Amino acid sequence: MDKETIIGQYPRSPDCLLSILHDLQEANPENYLTEDDLALVAAHVGLPLSAVHDAVTFYSMFSLRPRGRHIIRLCASPNCHLAGAWSALAELRTLLGVDVGGTTPDGLFTLELTSCLGVCGVAPVMMVDDEVVGNLTPDKVRQTIARYREAG
Ligand code: FES
Fold first, then answer.
1. pLDDT in tens, 86-124
2. Which of 16, 103, 125, 148 is the most buried (most CB within 10 A)?
3. Ligand 1 within 6 A of CB of 125
4. Does the beta carbon of 132 sit less than 6 angstroms from any atom of ligand 1?
């Protein structure tokens, strides 16, 4: 589906801003929003381009640069930190061969840190796309990454 079709599915209202941005980003195989996307959305919902840009940079789910097909977000807030998130991070760095902010050469994964995901009861936690993976151990990290690699 092209960008105009995606945007055209929504009413011309600022209330639709985040939904449109989400759909546009999801439709991009490189998982990010272009400056052109932002301009198209601003015109559609009747907001200044700067307001759309502010929204995109405020929410960590959006990106203005190309990313992998799967986004891994490891929680770096205190509860997860104390529960061993850094062991999970070390395992992720080794398995993926990239540091935080990096994308694997095959374009499959981007590794990011995030603040509290609101599921501290199962700390340490990471999200892979929309999936919450809690009680992380290096073994569980390996199994999760293997599962996503297998799925492609
Ligand atoms: S501190 Fe990690 S989910 Fe809350």
1. 999 999 999 999 999 999 999 999 999 999 999 999 999
2. 125
3. yes
4. no
Ligand 1 centroid, distance to 77 Cα (angstroms): 6
Ligand 1 close to Cβ of residue 25 (< 6 A): no
Question: What domains does the chain contain, in order, with CATH numbers?
Answer: 3-58 (no CATH), 70-151 (3.40.30.10)
Q: How many residues are listed for the chain in this entry?
A: 152
- For residue 55, which of 16, 28, 102 has the smallest C-alpha distance? 16
Instruction: Give the CA dihedral 138, 71, 61, 52, nearest 10 degrees.
Output: 150
**Bond into 78 cis (ω within 30):** no
Chain segment 46-66, per-residue pLDDT in tens: 999 999 999 999 988 899 999
Evaluate: CB of 80 within 6 angstroms of ligand 1. yes
> Tokens standing for 107?
């374009």
- pLDDT reported for residue 60: 81
Residue with tokens 């935080």: 100
Coil, strand, or helix at residue 70?
A: strand
| pTM exceeds 0.85 | no
Q: Which two tokens stand for residue 136?
A: 């992380």
How many angstroms does the Cα of residue 13 sit away from the middle of ligand 1?
A: 34
